[in-house]
C-alpha cells in the first residue's frame, strides 16, 4: 500500500478558548483532488493553513509521503529548521487574495521565491518561471506588473508562482472568491488542467459544480469536524449527514 502523498491525523487548532478544528484526519493520495466544502467558519481555510504550517496545530500529526513532519516551537513560534523549509517547499499555496508583489512583474513574482528560498541560479529560476507562466497561459503577459493584469491574470500568476517550486501538493484557498464572475472560469480552467495532469491538490471552494467535476473526493466540514467524506456523487447526490444535505441543498437550488 503506497504512502499517502499528504495526510493529517487528529488535527486540532484552538485560538485561546475557541476550538476551530476538532480532531481532523484526512489524506490525499498522489494525483487526488480533495475538495473541502462547508459554510463560512467551519474550519476549511484553517485546515489548509495548518497543513502548510502557516498556523501551528494545537495537536495532531502531519505526514508527507508517509514521513511524519516534526516541527519545533520556541515561545510559541515555529523554529525555522531545514526540515521545515523542505516541507514548506513541497507545498504550493494559492490564496484568495493574489499576494503578488506590486513592484515586480509577473515573471519576477514567480522567480523571486526560486532565487531567495530555493537558492536556484537566476538562469534556472527564469526558465522555470517562464515554463510555469506558459502552463497557466500567461507567458505573453510575463513582463506586466500586477496593476496591468486583470484579477484572473493575477491569480494565474499566483498559481504559476506556486507551480514553479515544483511542489508535491498544491493547496488552494478559495482561489476564485476575490474575482469578478466573468474571470472565475479562466482560473478554474487552469486548476482543472492541473488536476487532469495528475497534480495532487487540496482545494477550498464555493464553486460547487466545479468541485463536483474536478474532485476525487469531497470533505464537508461542519464546526471543525469532517461531517461527510466520499466521492463527489455521493456527497452531493446522497449525503448521509443531514447537515451536509441541507448545505448542498442550499447552494445548489
Low-confidence stretches: none
Shape: globular
Number of helices: 9
Order of helices and strands: EEEHEEEEHEHHHEHEHEEHH
Give the rounded overall mean pLDDT: 93
Secondary structural class: alpha/beta
Largest sheet: 6 strands, mixed
- Number of DSSP strands? 12
Oligomeric state of the chains in view:
single chain
Gyration radius (Cα, Å) is 18 Å
> In percent, how helical is the residue content?
25-40%
Q: Main sheet: which strands, in order across? A: 8-9-10-3-11-12
Roughly how many Å apart are the termini? Answer: 41 Å
Q: In percent, how much strand structure appears in the residues?
A: 15-25%
Protein architecture, described:
By secondary structure, the chain is an alpha/beta fold. It is 38% helix and 25% strand. The chain contains 9 helices and 12 strands. The protein has helices at 44-51, 82-89, 106-116, 122-135, 151-164, 181-196, 208-214, 232-237, 242-252; strands at residues 6-15, 18-28, 33-37, 59-64, 67-68, 73-74, 77-78, 91-94, 169-173, 201-204, 217-222, 225-230. Helix 3 (106-116) runs parallel beside helix 5 (151-164), helix 4 (122-135) packs across helix 5 and helix 5 packs parallel to helix 6. The longest helix is centred in the last third of the chain and has 16 residues, at 181-196. The termini are far apart. 40% of the residues are buried.
Amino acid at each position: 500500500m503506497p504512502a499517502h502523498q499528504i495526510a493529517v491525523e487528529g488535527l486540532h487548532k484552538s485560538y485561546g478558548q475557541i476550538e476551530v478544528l476538532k480532531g481532523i484526519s484526512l489524506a490525499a493520495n498522489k494525483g487526488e483532488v480533495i475538495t473541502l466544502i462547508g459554510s463560512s467558519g467551519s474550519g476549511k481555510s484553517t485546515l489548509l493553513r495548518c497543513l502548510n504550517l502557516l498556523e501551528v496545530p494545537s495537536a495532531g500529526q502531519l505526514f508527507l509521503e508517509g514521513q511524519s513532519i516534526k516541527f519545533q516551537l520556541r515561545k510559541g513560534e515555529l523554529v525555522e529548521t531545514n526540515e521545515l523549509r523542505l516541507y514548506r517547499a513541497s507545498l504550493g499555496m494559492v490564496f484568495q487574495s493574489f499576494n503578488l508583489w506590486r513592484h515586480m512583474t509577473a515573471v519576477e513574482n514567480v522567480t523571486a521565491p526560486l532565487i531567495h528560498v530555493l537558492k536556484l541560479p537566476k538562469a534556472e529560476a527564469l526558465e522555470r518561471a517562464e515554463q510555469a507562466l506558459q502552463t497557466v497561459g500567461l507567458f505573453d503577459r510575463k513582463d506586466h506588473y500586477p496593476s496591468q493584469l486583470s484579477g484572473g491574470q493575477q491569480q494565474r500568476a499566483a498559481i504559476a508562482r506556486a507551480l514553479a517550486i515544483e511542489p508535491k501538493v498544491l493547496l488552494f484557498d478559495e482561489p476564485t472568491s476575490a474575482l469578478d464572475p466573468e474571470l472565475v472560469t479562466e482560473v478554474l480552467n487552469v486548476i482543472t488542467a492541473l488536476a487532469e495532469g495528475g497534480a495532487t491538490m487540496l482545494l477550498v471552494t464555493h464553486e460547487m459544480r466545479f468541485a463536483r467535476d474536478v474532485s476525487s473526493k469531497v470533505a464537508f466540514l461542519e464546526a471543525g469536524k469532517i461531517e461527510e467524506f466520499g466521492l463527489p456523487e455521493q456527497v452531493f447526490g446522497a449525503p448521509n449527514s443531514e447537515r451536509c444535505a441541507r448545505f448542498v441543498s442550499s447552494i445548489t437550488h
